Amino acid sequence: MTQPAATDLEITVTGTDADGNIATETVTVQVLSGGTTPPPGFPGMLDPETAGHLAGDSAAPQGRSPGPPGPAPPGAQLMSSAEAQPMAQQVQIPGLGNATGHQTTATASQYVPPKVTQAVRAQTLFRRTGGFR
Amino acid sequence: MSTPSGAPTLSVATDKPSYNVGDMLTLTVTYADAQANALPLHITVTGTDSDGNVAAVQTDVMVTQSASGAVDVQASDSFGDTYAVVSNDGTSQAVLQTTVQAPPAQVISPA
Questions:
Q1: Are strands A22-32 and B18-20 parallel, antiparallel or unpaired?
Q2: B105/A77 CB distance under 8 A
Q3: Between B8, B14, B17, which is nearest A23 by CB?
Q4: In chain A, what residues touch B1 (CB-CB under 8 Å)?
């Protein structure tokens, strides 16, 4: 799991005294815009950064409203605010923690039910074989 | 920071150096108005381990030579967060808080 991207947050503080004299001070902190680290997911779950490179966006899961925009993945071409907004929505799914919007939905779409399907198929084949015998 | 003569003096500290989106951010602002004749006091702390390795860190505080009146304090930031003034003692210190929002999308010109 890669670390979430850090963005500088520049805070400007203005102080005005009783005589109207003004002073300003600036301080900068870092913001990890990826949010909290999600717990381990299901098999086949993509790394959020990898999922961020997938083409196309998916809608937020039904019943969940998209949150504020997250950061663009490294190497991605930055776009205007109007274009970038739909690509960078943040969705929170209980149990998965925060993740960047289209990354989360892309992750969900990558879930492939693993070996259970294969086991059922194997059992079916066995029964058919037994029937022929 | 250099403050013009006749202006208040501000010193700002955040409660943490790094935040996640959605975290509460608390700003503590120490101030003095122009009449307080505030001067910065530079403090250097040095630590030496058993191998003789030395590390040093510096911090600044304000020393006022007379009482300060109230200074109205406001804050803004590059994410567009809204700060609430939690307290202002009217003499030297104000506390402001905000909830860190996601950074705004950056705008670039098309390639």
A1: parallel
A2: no
A3: B8
A4: 24-26
What CA dihedral angle connects A67, A69, A71 and A77, to 10 degrees?
140
Q: Could you identify the residue written with the tokens 């503590």?
A: B28
Q: What is the pTM of this model?
A: 0.51
How far is the CA of B75 from the CAs of A8, A33, B34, B37, B82, in angstroms?
A: 16, 21, 20, 23, 8
How many CB atoms within 10 Å of residue A111? 13
Q: Residue A1: enclosing H or E segment and its boundaries?
A: none
What is residue A50's three-state secondary structure?
A: helix
Count CB atoms within 10 A of the CB of residue B85: 15
Within chain B, how many helices (H) and strands (E) appear?
A: 0, 8
Q: CB distance from B107 to chain A under 8 Å?
A: yes
Q: Tens-digit pLDDT profile for chain A (133 aa)?
A: 566 678 999 999 999 999 899 999 999 999 986 654 444 444 444 555 444 444 444 444 555 555 555 555 554 444 443 344 444 444 444 544 444 433 333 334 444 455 444 444 444 445 555 555 5
Complex confidence, ipTM? 0.76
- Cα of A69 to nearest chain B Cα, Å: 6
DSSP state, residue A101: H
Please report, as a single letter, which amino acid is at residue B16.
Answer: K
